[in-house]
């Protein structure tokens, strides 16, 4: 096996962190590192990269082929333990990084964590001996690779859905906004990929682009309920997480009941049903909290059953106009079913209407 030997500096970060800084010819990067695009293998997440963006790659390629290109930003590569560092100085900070060159379709020792578009442009560009700075770390742990991918990319323009889908598969401490979303994202992942979920593969994510419901609508629903709704009862106040099994069961019971009471409006395109729209998901989330409060306060039950949810939803069905007709919000305010938008005013009007009808027609 051929070994590529490159001068490198070892950089110590923290008690157990080592980075290696060196340069590779742009054309050599794809000889030692691959792109691990995010995908699903059965119900498990694999990989962590976003799809290549051809327009961006072409822009970088054109720049590389210009008269005097310079790219100071290092490409970040995660190597597995087939790659080694051989110190050559007394203090061990200067040496050589040894990278095996793998033939054919065999698994390469490296994965590009950051710089996918640059690496692709370097592969395609006519840029001769152009040298590219590399920042690398060595680990066999795919979770650590995902964590570094999130940390590197969370401050850049990156699809939020991809970040949220990766969050449940990490354990490292993240920035506070991401830390708060990790548990809701984990519950969303269960709802989307557990075979017993009524929302199985219905939530639109990076790995499930054909889903009917936007992931952000479900995340907001979960976060709201965790803060002051039905899910709050199962929450651990110390860390903001909690009994995910109980939360999953409660949400499965509720949304199963929703799907049975409104079958014509369920699992269809949002243009055909406002139940699948952000406005419908948000308002029905608040209704879930209200129904849970009724049964929990009256019977002290932790998990409301599908039949209990169905009973109350059936009484509200005549007032719901998910696929046709007009919502009658009162005071001469009638809104056609498909004119509801995912804006604050419509969200508030629809939520208030459903909660008012529920308290007046059902709870009373």
Automatic annotation (TrEMBL):
Transmembrane segments: none annotated. InterPro entries: DGQHR-contain_dom, DNA_S_mod_DndB. Pfam families: DndB (PF14072). This is DGQHR domain-containing protein. It comes from Alishewanella tabrizica.
């Amino acid at each position: 096996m051929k070994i590529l030997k490159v001068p490198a500096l070892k950089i110590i970060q923290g008690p157990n962190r080592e980075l290696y800084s060196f340069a590779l010819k742009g054309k050599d990067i794809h000889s030692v590192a691959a792109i691990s695009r995010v995908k699903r293998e059965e119900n498990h997440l694999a990989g962590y990269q976003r799809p290549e963006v051809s327009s961006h790659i072409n822009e970088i390629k054109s720049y590389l082929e210009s008269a005097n290109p310079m790219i100071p930003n290092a490409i970040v590569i995660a190597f597995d333990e087939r790659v080694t560092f051989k110190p050559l100085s007394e203090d061990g900070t200067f040496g050589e990084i040894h990278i095996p060159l793998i033939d054919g379709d065999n698994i390469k020792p490296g994965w590009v964590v950051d710089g996918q578009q640059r690496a692709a442009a370097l592969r395609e560009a006519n840029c001769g001996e152009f040298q590219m700075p590399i920042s690398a770390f060595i680990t066999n742990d795919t979770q650590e690779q995902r964590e570094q991918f999130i940390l590197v990319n969370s401050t850049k323009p990156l699809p939020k859905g991809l970040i949220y889908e990766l969050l449940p598969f990490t354990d490292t401490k993240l920035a506070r906004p991401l830390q708060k979303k990790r548990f809701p994202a984990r519950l969303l992942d269960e709802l989307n990929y557990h075979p017993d979920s009524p929302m199985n593969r219905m939530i639109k994510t990076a790995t499930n682009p054909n889903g009917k419901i936007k992931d952000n609508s479900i995340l907001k629903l979960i976060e709201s309920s965790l803060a002051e709704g039905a899910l709050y009862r199962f929450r651990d106040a110390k860390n903001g997480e909690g009994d995910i099994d109980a939360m999953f069961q409660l949400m499965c019971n509720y949304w199963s009941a929703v799907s049975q009471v409104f079958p014509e409006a369920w699992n269809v395109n949002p243009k055909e049903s406002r139940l699948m729209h952000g406005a419908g998901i948000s308002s029905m989330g608040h209704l879930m909290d209200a129904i849970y409060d009724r049964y929990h306060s009256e019977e002290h039950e932790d998990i409301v059953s599908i039949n209990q949810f169905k009973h109350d939803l059936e009484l509200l069905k005549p007032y719901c106009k998910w696929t046709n007709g007009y919502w009658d919000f009162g005071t001469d305010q009638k809104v056609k079913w498909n004119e509801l938008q995912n804006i604050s005013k419509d969200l508030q009007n629809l939520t208030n209407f459903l909660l008012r009808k529920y308290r007046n027609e059902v709870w009373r």
